[in-house]
Amino acid sequence: MIPLVGHLYRENNVVTSIYGRSIINRTVVDIIKAHKYVRQVEGTPLCVRETWPILEILSRLELGPSRIDIGKIATGYKNSNEAVELEDYVRGQVSELINAKNGSDHEEQDVVLYGFGRIGRLMARILIQRAGGSGMNLRAIIVRKGKAENDLQKRASLLRRDSVHGPFNGTISVDEENNVIFANGVAIQVIYANSPDQVDYTDYGINNAIVVDNTGVWRDAEGLGQHLQCKGTSKVILTAPGKGELKNVVYGVNHNIIEESDNIISAASCTTNAITPVLKAICDKFGVENGHVETVHSYTNDQNLIDNYHKGARRGRSAALNMVISETGAAKAVSKALPQLEGKLSGNAIRVPTPNVSMAILNLNLSTNTDVEELNNYLREMALYSDLKKQIDYTNSHEVVSSDFVGNRNAGIVDSRATIVNGNRCVLYVWYDNEFGYSCQVNRILQHMSGNMHKSVPA
Question: Does the domain spanning 109-240 belong to CATH 3.50.50.60?
Answer without folding.
Answer: no
